[in-house]
Amino acid sequence: MIAGVLCVVLTASLEVTPLVGDHAVIQQGQPIPVWGTADGRASVTVEWTDSAGDVEIVRTTASEDGFWSVDLAPRQWAAQPATIRVTSGDVSWSAEDVVVGEVWIASGQSNMEWPVSRSNAKGDSASDMTHAHIREFKVPHAFAEMPQSKIHGQWAVAGPQTTPKFSAVAWHFARRLNNDLGVPVGIVNSSWGGSRVEPWMSLDALDALRSTSPRVHGATKSWYDARSTAQVDADTFSAVDFDDSGWGEAVVPSSWKSIGLGDVDGTVFYRLNVWVPEHWVGKDLVVELGLIDDIDETLWDGHLIGSRVRHDVPRIYVVPGNLVTQGRHVITVANTDQQGAGGFYSKRGDLRLYVRDAPDDMIPLAGPWRWKQVSSWSQSARSTPTVVSNAMIAPFERLPVAGVIWYQGESNAGDPESYDLLFPAMIQDWRSRFKQPLPFYFVQLANLAHGRDNWHWPELREAQRRTLSLPDTGMALCFDVGNPTDIHPADKRTVGDRLARLALHGHYGHEVIPEGPRPMTLSLPGDGTAVVTFETYGGALSTRGGGPVRLVEVAGDDGVFHEASVVLSKHVLTAKSPAVASPVHVRYGWRQDPAAANLIGADDLPVSPFCLPSTVQPPTGGVSP
After folding, report:
1. DSSP classification of residue 162
2. Full-model pTM
3. 469 and 436 in contact (C-beta within 8 Å)?
4. pLDDT-derived band of residue 622, with 50, 70 and 90 as boundaries?
5. For the chain, how many structural domains are there in total?
6. Domain range for 536
7. 315-327 pLDDT per residue, tens
8. Which of 56, 120, 178, 482 could crosslink 48 through cysteines, CB 3.0-4.6 Å?
9. Sheet containing 358-364: order of strands
10. Do 240 and 329 contact (CB within 8 A), yes or no?
């Protein structure tokens, strides 16, 4: 619909992003941004004091709409805590126990969000879970129609009460980095179980991809059509002269159920006429609407004055004095509900309009409002393009980070051909938005014997593998440590460790084997064999436990795959089958559950399932996966 904001309100005159709050980890070697909002044109002072007593002070002035931002000087890692203090007028805010180290974003769907308490680390001792220099900022689930500027959340220091709630993959990743680098590690955990990749992309990135890809265009057409309709609704319904006489009437505050909508999700517009007295003209006004479930975008005569995406945050918005004239005005609330009943949930006295500098000079807003339902949702926010990115990534794009770890793909397994385009586009989108090269290390889908015809896991894995063509990417494998009967395998320790290997080798330049042998080229010498050459990272191809290589298949021009015999020689695999005189394709581990695939390299790291020449199209024949 229309641009909104998402914030933690500290006072009426000063807000500071919680990303630099108590116990924060700050990325070393880069300028340290501190930002927030204050009164328009107010002076803001930001002060950094380290453990040695050294002080840095930076001053700025908020913009007309109250936004302010400063950059403190870059610092190298420091385990001893610092303090950040922000002052504006007679209001101050401070963050204690701030350390400098390495900050990583952990994102994706449920296997990234999966907590330590439900993983193979749940039995670790209290001392194992205690680490003063590993910290997590958990971004709450949220979504928004347009990019947001602020965010909820807080940093937590690893300990017996907090670590069980951390992302298990990110926890093991951070422990390995901390152990090898010797610096504090912070994780910004912005993940949401069940989410597709499209919700994590910006609208600009999706627009660009749709313009070049008929497949992505078709896959997202219904959402784009609905979005265009919603924009027209917002522009139309918030106009002062719009005729709402045909709408229903509801006594507000009230839930959607109480006005006859039942338990539905979607968007309802509310409108209320208010009459401003002459002595209010030109003065800033405050609109208080209490609690709204879940999302509101509130307008004054069609001008957005505020928005929130949480049901438990009171709506308190300012109407600038230049919009306040004598006579009739219209307050419009676009209320979007993602679960529950929707509507207004506070006491009647909590809904009011008053002069900012004279709160007792007030008009009550409880009572009859006009309303109209404009949409009901056929899909959740976790499947809706751009909306998760708007609320859970956009608010901290200015934050310096070392890189990203990502575990997602299960929810897109029904359309690997689109994912083949969407996933690399999302990576490039994030790099552009963060204005950083962002090393991006991701997890390939685990093994799962799901038996569903509409989940093409081998093809989705291949789409993930093809993404390695982007620079500064790496793929951690887990098909050998998963659970064929559980989409959420418990072994997150191995996954986190393998992601850390990629980061230590690719980003930090440590001498560590980053991954198993990676297939690089296919050659067809014409003697009935298919020859695959690997990058083996200093090791050699072998099999786990010895014995012949399993799950290698070759196919001719007919595309029918047959089991192949294999010869290994250092970094080369040669495959042939008596049923295929002239092979043109070779694939390995092409199964929903490829746990039997046994090719490994140094440190027992597995070889990824692959198909060469590469394809992400579901098979039309041959050996059934």
Report:
1. T
2. 0.84
3. no
4. very low
5. 3
6. 518-612
7. 999 999 999 999 9
8. 56
9. 315-319, 285-290, 352-355, 358-364
10. yes
